[in-house]
Amino acid sequence: YLSVFTWAIVTFGWEPFLMAAAIDEARFDRILEGFTRITEQVVAAHLRAEIPVFLCHDDLVWTSGAPFRPSWYRQYVLPRYERLWRPLKEAGVKILFCCDGDFTELAGDLAEAGADGFIFEPYTRLETLVARFGRTHVLIGNIDTRILTFGKPEQIRAEGRRCAELGRPCPGYFFAVGNH
Q1: Over the stretch 92-118, which tens digit does the pLDDT of each residue have?
Q2: Residue 101 near residue 61 (C-beta atoms within 8 A)
């Protein structure tokens, strides 16, 4: 469940993590490397289990988007995903990347690193993912649980129709509420 970025959140909390990473990126890189080594053990165990699909969950972003500039992720996180995912890809394992918040701007980088699909909340823009990855990647999610919980019947139907219309041309689109 935890991966490179989320280990830092769970271990330090958001604010100390953000401060430490911003104050001394090179030094914090060593901490991320330690978390990557832990995650390598998880990947190795999954490979021994001969799983067909690997779910990588890493909360890289907030509901408003990335707290770090994209270049920071490209330097410190995404190469680690490539390294972690390489043995999975070589074994023919499909990789689904799951993230809370809005990771729209990082989706291309994640696909380039090896993600075969995305599991996401309504903050990540379904329209963008459909346009870029709808014919090539699995897309799971985007139905807004707030509308299902608090909306009027016509709003709920409209939310279902919105996702159905966007996802219809995608062979790998699945309805999901939240990122589950």
Answers
A1: 999 999 999 999 999 999 999 999 999
A2: yes
pTM metric for this prediction: 0.94
CB 96 within 8 A of CB 118: yes
C-beta of residue 152 within 8 angstroms of C-beta of residue 172? no
**Alpha helix (H) ranges present in 49-144?**
70-76, 78-90, 107-113, 126-133
Q: How far apart are CA 90 and CA 73, in angstroms?
A: 24
Please write the tens of the pLDDT for every residue from 27-59: 999 999 999 999 999 999 999 999 999 999 999
Among candidate residues 10, 126, 125, the one with its CA nearest the CA of residue 58: 10
d(CA 63, CA 123): 6
Strand 138-141 and strand 173-174: the pairing is parallel
CA distance 173 to 175: 7
